[in-house]
Design brief:
This protein is an alpha+beta fold and about 725 residues long. The protein has three domains: about 150 residues, Ubiquitin-like (UB roll); about 375 residues, 2-Layer Sandwich (Creatine Kinase, Chain A, domain 2), CATH 3.30.590.10; about 130 residues, Four Helix Bundle (Hemerythrin (Met), subunit A). The chain contains 24 helices and 20 strands. The strands form five sheets. Strands 1, 2, 5, 6, 7 and 8 form a six-stranded mixed beta sheet that branches. The protein has a six-stranded mixed beta sheet with strand order 13-9-15-20-19-16, covered by helices on one side. α12 packs parallel to α17 and α21 packs parallel to α23. The two termini are about 25 Å apart. About 45% of the residues are buried. The structure holds adenosine-5'-diphosphate and magnesium ion. The site of magnesium ion has 3 residues, from loops.
Length: about 725
């Protein structure tokens, strides 16, 4: 029999763990060796060129052509010394993944010889034929010109034989066609506004940088089983599959001993990450069987985002060496936990202070509270935009799934801070006691004790002691999307905070009184998004509704927040993206949603009609033959008694087959109607409202058939086989 499932199962019985291949030497010796980091620059660049580039990177200044030539020459020498033969501009198009087009260093010269060549202009700017990248209508394919430009703030790196140069990607008319451009702009705005903000508190800092630590969840499945599941291969998730009798109910996987094949895979991922300077720190089993997590030490946001993109790529490649496949989808398996990507976010000054660390001195405490409530106020002004930044077809399955935060944006701040904010709200922070510190009037901020166990795992946006953790981000997403939005909304609010304080000071308020007054107002304004209870509960859904918080459970309506007047104003007044660019992104996101659902729906139709129904019929025939045979050998009375169950099973199978057939046909009709719709928004809406509802219905009948049909015939690897590594 040509059953791929059994072939795969036979195959994996022969599996044994493939050992990881550590390089010789300690990790500190190979860490970062494949990145053109400061150490490599110092080694390969002339002294003055080195000083120039470091200065340019640190102060965000332009690198001139002469310097670029010098850097290119040394980058080439360095890359060749590490076996590179090609280079590429590595960028983040609006597909959400990364793109690269390799060029050889080879340059033919006379007499049939060649040299390695790579000059400053090749480093600084390239013009890839980018006609097939999504532009959301900004640029039609016949005028496909876009160019990539070097981002010196993220070090070049080598993967395989190729020097990868992180770049932005913009059209010739100046519109951003990628995620890095608006991300860098948002980082610039928040950095500047945070410096101004710190000055309000008398801190002479030169630079403030947002920091990000990304926890990455994922599943591993055996590659042979993966190959026998067309749905996993084409959509990244199982569209059918009955629950395994045992999956995560005993919580015996979470933080358990890591299965050997998985561990060897992780070791290799870490080794390759270290060479690329990705500071992976933790690894552990997650809640669902075969679900894992890794997290690096936090870094500057731009670097953290690049590193996460590189990490996802590395994981997928390295898994193959271990006969595994990494599933980055937000919900590969129904009924067990999905995967997210917690974004731990804070801000760091060049003097080494974390703006979300409640300081010891009264001054530091005041700054902390001010920054903290500014973030809350920013979120409470733009919850729908934050929600939009994590909207995607895959994440729709996860949010609100009783394992992940709901689609309602709220913030958890813990008991201590709640008390503190309540006290300031009531008293204005000044009535209790005023203290004098170096003769400067410092209002009394209540003592802040932070208890690290004071945690709420159900909140989408939780304060965890010295950072906020945005937990609603999907596991396959680029963190650039939520980071652009978060940085921007906080930057904008920081600017407003300072303006509001300045106005009060002009009205003759003392500085600290003015600051407290604004703080108090922000506490009041942001109260509606503070929620300390269980975000998974139905009570919260009701309560949130009362508070007027949106609960947008699917992507197309969630995306709308990208093109509201408030959003456009926010992006435009800070020069991050124009209305046109936002509209383009909106359209791209809608199209991406539509296509993903379309693919899933097709895969479902194909599996149902060409795999499931024929097998169910085959089994049904066996039962029918058997019943007919019984009738021949048994007397009428015994036959009637004994065949009842069998006939019932035949009826049940018929019923499920007919439902599957009927529903897939209906779904196809809905798809046809949706496909005729031109307008991107209406099309996505049709897919969301008319096609998606069939997924559950069809699945229910297929999963029932899985329980009825002979295991020997069932064509798709079952959950119990997919979810446990051998
Ligand atoms: P948990 O699972 O308890 O949330 P993890 O240790 O898995 O914690 O992840 C916490 C993440 O937060 C790490 O990536 C860590 O580096 C990051 N982090 C810690 N401090 C900061 C900070 N100040 N800014 C940004 N990220 C931070
Ligand atoms: Mg976490």
């Amino acid at each position: 029999m040509n059953n791929l499932r059994f072939k795969a199962l036979d195959f994996i019985n022969t599996r044994s763990a493939k050992k990881s291949t550590p390089p010789t030497g300690k990790l500190s010796e190979y860490y970062g060796t494949l990145t053109f980091n400061k150490r490599a620059m110092r080694e390969f660049l002339p002294v003055d060129a080195f000083a120039n580039i470091i200065n340019a990177i640190e102060s965000n200044e332009k690198i001139d052509r002469k310097m670029a030539d010098q850097i290119a020459a040394s980058m080439k020498a360095w890359a060749i010394s590490h076996g590179a033969s090609h280079y590429t501009h590595w960028f983040h198009p609006l597909t959400g993944s990364t793109a690269e087009k390799h060029d050889s260093f080879m340059h033919p010269i006379e007499e049939g010889r060649a040299i390695e060549r790579f000059n400053g202009s090749e480093l600084i700017q390239q013009e890839p034929d980018a006609s097939s990248f999504p532009s959301g209508g900004i640029r039609s394919t016949f005028e496909a010109r876009g160019y990539t430009a070097w981002d010196p703030s993220s070090p070049a790196f080598i993967i395989d034989d190729t020097l990868c140069i992180p770049t932005i990607f913009v059209s010739y008319t100046g519109e951003a066609l990628d995620f890095k451009t608006p991300l860098l702009k948002s980082l610039n705005v928040i950095g500047k506004s945070a410096v101004e903000f710190c000055r309000l508190f008398g801190n002479e800092v030169k630079k403030v940088t947002p920091t990000l630590g990304i926890e990455q969840e994922y599943f591993l499945v055996d590659s042979a089983l993966h190959a026998a599941r067309p749905d996993l291969a084409l959509t990244g998730r199982t569209v059918f599959g009955h629950a395994s009798a045992k999956d995560q109910q005993l919580s015996d996987h979470y933080f358990g001993t890591i299965q050997e094949r998985a561990l060897e895979f992780m070791k290799d991922v870490e080794i390759e990450s270290y060479k690329l300077g990705i500071p992976l720190k933790t690894r552990h089993n997650e809640v669902a069987p075969n679900q894992f997590e890794c997290a690096p030490v936090f870094e500057e946001v731009n670097l953290a985002v690049d590193h996460n993109q590189m990490l996802m790529h590395l994981m997928q490649r390295i898994a193959r060496h271990h006969d595994l496949v990494v599933l980055l989808h937000e919900k590969p398996f129904a009924g067990v936990n999905g995967s997210g990507k917690h974004n731990n976010w804070s801000m760091m000054t060049d003097t080494g202070e974390n703006l979300l660390s409640p300081g010891k001195t009264p001054k530091a405490k005041l700054r902390f509270i001010a920054f903290f409530v500014t973030v809350l106020k920013a979120i409470s002004n733009n919850p729908d935009l934050l929600r939009a930044s994590i909207a995607a077809a895959g994440n729709d399955h996860r949010l609100g799934g009783h394992e992940a935060p709901p689609a309602i944006i709220s913030a958890f701040i813990g008991e201590q801070l709640s008390k503190t904010l309540d006290e300031i709200e009531e008293t204005g922070g000044i009535t209790k006691a005023a203290t004098f510190d170096n003769n400067i009037f410092i209002p009394k901020i209540p003592e802040i004790f932070l208890d690290n166990t004071d945690r709420n795992r159900t909140s989408p946006f939780a304060f965890t002691g010295n950072k906020f953790e945005f937990r609603a981000v999907g596991s396959s997403a680029t963190c650039a999307k939520p980071m652009i939005v978060l940085n921007l909304m906080v930057a904008d609010q920081l600017i407003k905070f300072k303006d509001e304080v300045d106005i009060l000071i002009k009205k003759k308020f003392k500085r600290n009184d003015a600051i407290l007054k604004v703080i108090r107002q922000y506490i009041i304004d942001s109260k509606k998004i503070r929620f300390e209870g269980n975000n998974y509960s139905d009570e919260w859904i009701k309560e949130a509704k009362k508070r007027g918080l949106a609960n947008i459970t699917s992507t197309p309506p969630a995306l709308k927040a990208y093109i509201t007047k408030e959003t456009i104003d926010l992006f435009e007044r800070n020069n991050i993206l124009t209305a046109k660019e936002l509209e383009a992104r909106y359209q791209i996101n809608l199209e991406n949603y539509t296509k993903k659902i379309q693919i899933e729906s097709r895969v479902m139709g194909d599996l149902a009609k060409n795999h499931i129904i024929p097998i169910a019929i085959r089994y049904q025939n066996t039962l029918i033959e058997n019943t007919l045979g019984l009738k021949q050998v048994l007397d009428e009375k015994t036959y009637v008694g004994l065949s009842r169950n069998q006939i019932q099973t035949i009826k049940d199978i018929s019923e499920h087959i007919s439902q599957v057939k009927m529903k897939t046909d209906e779904m196809l009709e809905e798809r046809k109607i949706a496909n005729r719709i031109e307008d991107g928004e209406l099309k996505a809406k049709a897919y969301n409202e008319k096609v998606v509802p069939y997924f559950e219905e069809i699945r229910r009948h297929v999963d029932k058939l899985e329980l009825l049909v002979d295991d020997e015939l069932w064509p798709l690897p079952k959950y119990r086989e997919l979810l446990f590594l051998r």
